[in-house]
Amino acid sequence: MHCVQSLFRGTADDCDLITWMCDRIWVMQGSILPHEALSGARLSIAEMLLGGTTTFLESLWAERYGFGNLVKAVEESGIRGCLGKVVMDVNPDQPAFRNRMHKGLVEGPETLPNAIKMWEQYDGVADGRVKVWFGARTPGGVSTSFLERMCKEAKERGIHITMHCLEEKMDHDVFKQFGKSPMEYCDSIGLLSDRTVLIHMCWVEGEDIKLLAKTGTHIAHCPASNMKLASGFCPVPEVRLLFSLSHISSHTKILTSQTATPRKRKRRHRRRRRPLQQHPRPLRGNASLRPNPQRAYPQPIRRLRRASPRNGHHKRRQSPRPLLRNRKPGNRQESRFRRHRVKESASDSEL
Description:
Elements: H1 17-29, H2 34-50, E1 55-61, H3 67-77, E2 80-87, H4 111-122, H5 125-128, E3 130-136, H6 144-157, E4 161-165, H7 171-176, H8 182-188, E5 196-200, H9 207-215, E6 218-221, H10 223-229, H11 236-242, E7 248-250, H12 293-296, H13 332-350
Parallel strand pairs: 1-2, 2-3, 3-4, 4-5, 5-6, 6-7
């Protein structure tokens, strides 16, 4: 999850991944102020709660946003958050497209000790709902020595790591300069473990999948995000053959707390609950902007319950009362009607 990117929705549509990231999103993210980042975090968390999400993973929260703002948004909302603080340095030999990062997002090796300070200060606050992670930048944009140092610190302190990896096909060219496959390189620096979540993984293949399964590394693939940017698909069928369901999660830039198989529904009739309130209808055309409670918030719809012995409606309903002329004599209403007719006839005779 990138909480601040909820503020940019609709500003970079119909773009490929590199154009979307380098020319649009990084430019806006590099100009975000702390109070704007707090608003973006609150908006993202509110949307997640409305969708039923209880736990999320923020993968790259920059220092310019203020890490305390993200913790504040999690604490006041009641959601659980795994908060990835950006950890990076500048690799002078990084690929050309990674060198296009906005200057407002470029940070140095001091991010590692700062992330450790944030872990010591905030990890476990809000009744244990806040967990501080290392949010590592993708290999190639960070030096190998720095990544090895980060993995060592994480292993000593038991800190989890999240990193974007193999999101675009060009990442394979980045790993070729190391003379290893992508996952062999990640394993050599100590990144692969059950405390690591690799995001996207659209172009993982071959023996790398077996290595991920062997080390217990987690995968969070993003089908909706990858379809929007046409960056590829994670080979989920191949991965599921080697992974347990707890090691792979499907999400739209949101990592849920766990992946559970859907429960089979029992084949029996259940009474349908009527909605408490309908959603307000949007105004159309030249409709008045004045609030109209009856139009915006209509009354709940009453639904007729199905006749069943359980709800007491299994008996046949009585037919409507017959007309007065069809009633049997001796009825109280009939006798009253006859007395009224006799009285009128007597008064006519007196006249």
